[in-house]
Amino acid sequence: MPSHFLHALLASFEAHADRCALEYGDRRWSYHELAAAGRRCAAWLQTQGIAPGDRVVLFTPNKLPFLIGQLGALLAGAIPLPLNPRFTRQELHYFLSDSGARLILAGQQQEPLVAEVASALPVPPQVASDAVAVAAPAAHWQQPAASADAPCLMLYSSGTTGWPKGVVHTHANVASSLSALAAAWQMTPDDVVVNTLPLFPIHGLAFATYLTWLTGGCLLVQDAFEPAAVLAALAGATVFMAVPPMYYRLLEEPQLAAAASWPRMRLFTCGSAPIRPEVLPQLEGLLGRPIINRYGMTEAFVITSLPLAGPWPHGSVGLPLAGVSLRIVGEDGAEKHAPAVGAIQLRGPNLFREYWNRPEATREALASGWFNTGDLGQLDASGFLTLVGRQHDLIIVSGYNVYPQVVERVIGECPGVAECAVLGIPDAQRGECVAAAVVRSDPGLDEPTLAAWCRERLIHYQQPRSVRFVDSLPRNSLGKVLRRELRAQFE
Predict the structure, then answer these.
(1) Mean pLDDT of 384-411
(2) Does residue 354 belong to any structural domain of this protein?
(3) Which of 152, 179, 206 is the last residue of a domain?
(4) Is residue 418 situated within a structural domain?
(5) pLDDT tens digits for 152-184?
(6) Mind spelling out the 3-state secondary structure of 299-368?
(7) Which of 72, 301, 99, 132 shows the shortest CA–CA distance to 205?
(8) Boundary residue ending a domain (126, 149, 179)
(9) pTM across the whole model
């Protein structure tokens, strides 16, 4: 197992020099060509005074300059920091200020906002067009010395409570995480990976891009998810990594029926949120292959994955990857055994090094040697993990714990329900009660019918006391339900 991500990446680039590394639009880049472009960008960054450890922000929707820009930052010894190019002025100000960014590669449409925000900072970072990442002239590149414990990548957490924190991973963290994932998914240089995910979150950048390049495969990048274009690409691909909304849109495409005849497709994966249980059998039937669920987070990359061959427990997110240890603990911090539900904690070489400029938060998170994920789950006797919700989403009704995903599973199986989300709302008698937002596939479904369904399948304190039928559920770009926005509909 490699111990240094950049060294392993460069070794892969050299070993597979003549193979396709990237297919984007009508151009194919060999590993030799991609490495040369990355070195040119790195050399340009060094001429701008970028030193090892400096934060180089990628703030662009343009995927080619993003990919070469982050590679250049890595090769310069800097810390790539991808940000969502749709951030508002206030959000961008926070991230640039908090990270102490030294240089920002911005898309053409983003440059005016970036320049305005950057100029207002106490130490304004340099702002450059993302085009320079691709068009940087040949220059001398000085490869920096970087230990395995040096920072390699910085990503901001999702910020479900308060402002997001910068999560710093080392070269050792990234190498360990991706090597374990490559083994679990049996990645090889013969793989062609279709990536339509946004590149600023960990899913599109690390799990799809870095993993493919580390194992010598070809990354087929599309600017956005367009079902027809994806289906055309999958006909010659081997791996597709996606989030649930992408799979739902594929279901609407008549051409999906041809999926079973795709000659090379071997792996479909899903993460960030679960696929609705009532849709999964139909989807897997059309694809002719199982969808491999996995569980991960910014602080720990991929933590668990279903094995490539079943059978698996219904609703499970799989087994821990090599080197990762999991445990379930109760409110008193004591370990609980199968099949008890509790807080999911983990330890292993995949864990992040620190929260940027937050030493107290870092010490609190890592002090015991076990990292608390903030998720609730249960391990079965074979070590398979099943998620039941977020700790801060836990609903306490008259002292009883209610796990949203348990209730959502039951409601989701009711005829006429397309999807749903469950949350807790204040209740004068019980402290909290269960509320459900439901998207109907059958307009004739009414609240009494749904209530009767739940009464037969849920204990009294788990049954929704308030139901809202909605047109859609608010979600982020990765398909996660935004419960904070949903809660306002019940106020």
Answers:
(1) 88
(2) no
(3) 179
(4) yes
(5) 999 998 755 568 899 999 999 999 999 999 999
(6) CCEEEEECCCCCCCCCCCCEEECCCCEEEEECCCCCEECCCCCEEEEEECCCCCCEECCCHHHHHHHHCC
(7) 301
(8) 179
(9) 0.87
For residue 83, which of 119, 72, 97 has the smallest C-alpha distance? 97
- DSSP 8-class letter at 122: S
Q: Is 13 in contact with 34 (CB distance < 8 Å)?
A: yes
- Sequence length of the chain is 491
Alpha helix ranges (H) inside 62-102: 63-75, 89-99
Over the stretch 76-106, which tens digit does the pLDDT of each residue have? 999 999 999 999 898 899 999 999 999 999 9
CA pair distance 98, 234, nearest whole angstrom = 40
Encoded tokens for 80? 């790539």
Residue ranges making up the domain that contains 35: 5-179
**At 407, which CATH number?**
3.30.300.30
Could you give the CA distance from residue 182 to residue 211 in angstroms, rounded to a whole number?
7
Residue 377 is assigned to a structural domain of this protein: no
Q: Say which CATH number the domain at 150 has.
A: 3.40.50.12780
What Å distances lie between residue 240 and 88, 403, 416, 443, CA to CA? 31, 31, 30, 34
Share of the chain above pLDDT 70, in %: 98
Total tally of structural domains belonging to the chain = 2
DSSP characters over 439-470: EESSTT--HHHHHHHHHHHS-GGGS-SEEEE-
384 inside domain: no
Closest Cα partner for 231 from 190, 286, 183, 188? 286
The pLDDT tens digits for 351-385 are: 999 999 999 999 999 988 999 999 999 999 999 99
